[in-house]
Amino acid sequence: MGQLKRFIAEVLGFDGWKIVDWFWVKPNGVRYKPVSMVLVRPGERLVFVVARCWIGRCSECGRRCGKVHEHAEAPRTWHDLPWCDHPVDIEYGPDRLCCRHCQSSCVELLPWADRYQRETKRLQQHLALLAQSMPTSHVAGLYGVDWHTVRCAERAALERWQATRSPLPLTMAGIDEKYLGRRNAFEDKYVTIVSNLQTGEPIWIGFGRRQDTVRQWLDTLSPQQKAEITLFAMDMHGPFMAAIRADAALAHTAIVHDPFHVIKRANEAIDELRRQVFFRGGEQMRALGRGKRWLFLRAWEKCTPEQRAELAQLLSYNGKLAHAYQVVEELREVLHAPDDVTMLVGLTHVLRRIQRRDNMPMRKLHDSLQDHLPEIVALGKHRPPVGRVEALNNNWETLVRQGRGYRDLQFLLLKLRFAIANPIRTEHGVARFVALGLPTPYRQAA
Hints:
Blueprint: H1 3-12, E1 17-25, E2 31-32, E3 45-52, E4 68-70, E5 76-83, E6 86-92, E7 96-98, E8 105-107, H2 121-131, H3 136-143, H4 147-163, E9 172-179, E10 190-196, E11 202-207, H5 211-218, H6 223-228, E12 231-234, H7 238-245, E13 254-257, H8 259-279, H9 283-289, H10 293-297, H11 305-315, H12 319-334, H13 340-353, H14 360-371, H15 373-382, H16 387-403, H17 409-421, H18 427-435
Parallel strand pairs: 3-6, 9-12, 12-13
Antiparallel strand pairs: 1-2, 1-3, 4-7, 5-6, 7-8, 9-10, 10-11
Helix pairs in contact: 2-4, 2-18, 3-4, 4-17, 5-7, 8-9, 8-12, 8-14, 12-13, 13-15, 16-17
């Protein structure tokens, strides 16, 4: 091997491999070797033909294997990172080996690519890195590959990243449902997402929001894993609670309702009462209440002085609506109680104020709070980081909007984990993520 070929092999970083030949390929597929680099046009592909220096290694166990079962009939090509705005391919015909150690007959181990892949690992890592902040079609156009190629490369890179992580114990779990929208081909319009409250990362996703859906996830847990769980955070959806209570191995766990969904039900009562007062009270009242929905749903402490003055004027038109708004504001304060005893006292006072049956929207809120009182009081006792469940929903919306929807929920689950863990937030994190695509040293493959 000449000095130039040895230098190119060192740049490629394939230990135990040598450069046999190289040539250029025109867009029409014609191969040629230019006399001068001036004759090479932009966009033409550079192909390196490589060969093995030592005996092959089994891709199953990684051990040396000198027995060849079958030679490759035709060479294969793998896309690599571009050089000086020229796309680069690696060409090699891998042998199928007969391993005497694991008794397998598989294609030999290649340091630059995984099995069944036609892109090098380092190219996949760069494609996945760009796909986190760019649309898939833009990444495909930048590297001159197909849209589907970028998506497959991104999945392979994320799976490679996930394999390097150590699983964390699950002590607090969050359960929430997500609406898929009406424009989808799935039979179920909802999915259930289970997340780890300690990290905020999703750990399971399944179609539907029924009791059987949660039971499918519980069946994947071992008795030891169930014993380590101490708390479940969820909304007021009954099937979720029924699935947890039906499992005898989870009898020791506490169920907590996050304050977001508690206030959401209170705002639904306020909104219904607003409709009764303004939009069913005649033309004059309808004109006063038009466009004020979000003003009634906004917390008093978040309103500007002008909004507070306008809200006070609107509440002065109806005492029942003003009383309901005061109760909701009191409920907001109660949900921030320092302990469960203080929260129970505050909730009891709130329930006493909305127990009248002549105010049906607030009476429905009363019955809902009364039915879920133990789970709401448990919020003051345990104080889990329930905000991470709603943060997961925001990441979901961002990814779905950027990706124009996803048909493979497991791939979406993997992208959610990567987005929440965010290992590329620093320069060191980016370097570590890209390093996952470096060629495997051939001598250390075992």
